[in-house]
Amino acid sequence: MENSDYPLLSVDNLSSGYSKKTVLKDISFHVDAGERVAIVGRNGAGKSTLLMALIGAMKAWSGKILYSGRDATVWSAPERVRSGMALVPQGGRVFANLMVQENLELGAYIMQDPKAVAAALELVYETFPILKSRATQDAGTMSGGERQMLAIGRAMMCQPKLLMLDEPSLGLAPVVVKELMDKIYELSATLKMTILIVEQNVRAAFKIVDRVYVLKLGKIVFEEKPETLYHDERLRKAYLG
Q1: pTM exceeds cut of 0.70
Q2: Once rounded to an integer, what is the mean pLDDT over residues 9-26?
Q3: Which of 100, 143, 209, 230 has the fewest CB atoms within 10 Å, counting from its CB?
């Protein structure tokens, strides 16, 4: 059960990596329920690795991941999804040979009630009307922006409390990026969904988030309001390039 006395997500001295290579080094931060928070930094800073560790696809070497006050550090990825966490991975990954609706239905694999699945599907279609009009189209024939919307819609199907997005604007045209960011903001504002977004396009991300953490070489170096970070040229050059 969600406990409002705690942040929805709290990370305490988390370290992780690949094989013997340490990527994340004693990272600590939090995300309150209903917040929109960005993790930014240069390529290789460890942003995607952090999301993989949070969803349980990578093991925490040390430290703790607390979800609504509960220690989720050793939970499996399916346990984290059932608790209300969802990750949209980088690159708009979809099942190319399946239809749009089939992709969405796969996102509801943890749900047992057909009525709940139908309600979740309708909500996705309300949020992304283009997906409803393409319901029987093979996902692999869609544009990059449409595939990204489908990937977000699939994550929405399990009705997450915390939606994590890894570089959702990657490879998309500016007009598509704006539409996508508007939709992400809408999800948070209307559905009270908490958003944690990793993004290289800081101009787009900063327009929709409440707080920003800057990651440099596997460490959180500071936390700021987006407007402060964006307008401080020294900070932008030092940490964002």
Answers
A1: yes
A2: 95
A3: 143
In 56-121, which ranges are E strands?
62-67, 70-71, 85-88
The answer to whether residue 205 sits within a structural domain is yes
203 is a domain residue: yes
Q: Does residue 48 lie within any of the structural domains?
A: yes
Supply the DSSP string of 193-214, one letter for each residue: -EEEEE-S-HHHHHTT-SEEEE
| Angle of helix 144-156 versus helix 174-191 axis, rounded to 10 | 10
Confidence of residue 200 (pLDDT cuts 50, 70, 90): confident
Structure tokens at 164: 């994590």
Q: What is the pLDDT of residues 122-171, one digit of tens each?
A: 999 999 999 999 999 999 999 999 999 999 999 999 999 999 999 999 98
By the 10 Å C-beta count (0-12 exposed, 13-18 middle, 19+ buried), 193 is classed as buried
Number of domains present in the structure of the chain: 1
The region, left, alpha or beta by phi > 0 then psi within -120 to 50, assigned to residue 192 is left
CATH number at residue 129: 3.40.50.300
